[in-house]
Write a structure and sequence with these properties.
This protein is of the alpha/beta class and about 325 residues long. It has one domain: Homocysteine-binding-like domain (TIM Barrel, Alpha-Beta Barrel). The protein is about 45% helix and about 10% strand. It has 14 helices and 8 strands. Helix 11 crosses helix 12. The longest helix is centred in the middle third of the chain and has 20 residues. The chain starts with 5 loop residues before the first helix and ends with a helix.
Length: about 325
């Protein structure tokens, strides 16, 4: 499978992405809430390696490098501006090591917090920021580029521009905050058309919103364009009036009760596939069990075949005692 690139795989059918990294690593104690910078790739590489392994074993067909917020300006907030190259190289190497010949590796760019729509100098600064990261990531051998979490369509367009210069396939996704539009006031359909016209190979949405508040916008994109679409929602339920999970008072320390169930994520994967979404993944709050259930729902993950002698004189677990194994088998 590794000889097939992302566009070839998408031609064959939906591709399953991975889940969220920074928030999960924060829960495990390796990333600090607030800056959410990814220095774990340098300081505790085994923690990052293990999370990649979990996603791979759950059925993910793509592993994203943990280079979100790995730009010079963002790293400067924690005194690591001079470790940009080291960090980006380490993150790609760890992902490639775990991916082997089983998964593709996607280099990753994120919002910069420095974009200003009416400032040419700010746009040039964003462009330089993306180019600096991409130079390292491409040198380390990523298979394609993902630019993500852009509430400004203008910043997403700069990500397309920079990613296309690498010669690799580019997937660029926007995000909606608490209004159903980009920061410029553009619709999902408009954004999708604009990103494709700019040269993106895959466009879509990611982060901030759960499936129930993202799929309607994805449906608008699907009606507006015929190209490959990507959807990567968060794994937290949010209210209708505040769909952006980062705007909730529970963010980031009280999110646990809001986590989406594995069954809900499986249902989302099926709904996305039936809508014609091509790249089906997840973002913050989505862990390996969510990806595994998505893989199962999409027919990409077979049931566990390890030896288990059921059907003896007496049940040997509450799972058998209450018939849960039968219910599961009938689903």
């Amino acid at each position: 499978m590794k000889n097939k690139g992302i566009l070839e795989r998408l031609k064959d059918g939906p591709v399953l992405g991975d889940g969220g990294y920074l928030l999960e690593l924060e829960k495990r104690g390796w990333v600090r809430a607030g800056p959410f910078t990814p220095e774990v790739a340098l300081t505790y590489p085994d923690a990052l390696r293990e999370l990649h392994i979990e996603f791979r074993q759950a059925g993910a067909e793509v592993l994203q490098t943990l280079t979100f917020y790995a730009s010079r300006d963002k790293l400067a907030t924690v005194g690591l501006q001079n470790r940009l190259e080291d960090l980006n190289r380490a993150a790609v190497r760890i992902a490639r090591e775990v991916a082997g010949d089983q998964c593709l590796v996607a280099g990753n760019l994120s919002l910069t917090w420095m974009y200003e729509p009416d400032s040419a100098s700010a746009k040039d600064r964003v462009r330089k920021t993306f180019d600096e990261q991409l130079e390292v990531q491409v040198d380390e051998g990523v298979d394609f580029i993902i630019g993500e979490t852009f509430s400004w369509l203008g910043e997403a367009l700069i990500a397309v521009e920079c990613a296309k210069k690498t010669g690799l396939p580019a997937m660029v996704t926007i995000c909606f905050e608490n209004k159903d539009e980009t920061a410029e006031g553009k619709s999902a359909a408009y954004a999708a058309k604009t990103l494709f016209d700019a040269g993106a190979d895959i466009v879509g949405m990611n982060c901030l919103r759960p499936p129930e508040h993202m799929l309607p916008a994805m449906e608008q994109m699907r009606k507006a364009v015929s190209g490959y679409l990507a959807c990567q929602p968060v794994g937290y339920h949010t209210p209708v009036d505040k769909p952006d999970f980062t705007s909730l008072p529970e963010f980031p320390y009280g999110l646990d009760p809001l986590q989406v169930t594995r069954g809900d994520m499986g249902d989302y994967a099926v709904a996305a596939r039936d809508m014609g979404i091509n790249y089906i993944g997840a973002c913050c709050g989505a862990v390996a069990i969510h990806i595994r259930e998505m893989a199962r729902a999409l027919g990409k993950f077979s049931e566990d075949t390890r030896l288990w002698k059921k059907g003896g004189e007496k049940p040997m677990s509450a799972y058998e005692y209450y018939g849960h194994h039968i219910e599961r088998a009938n689903k």
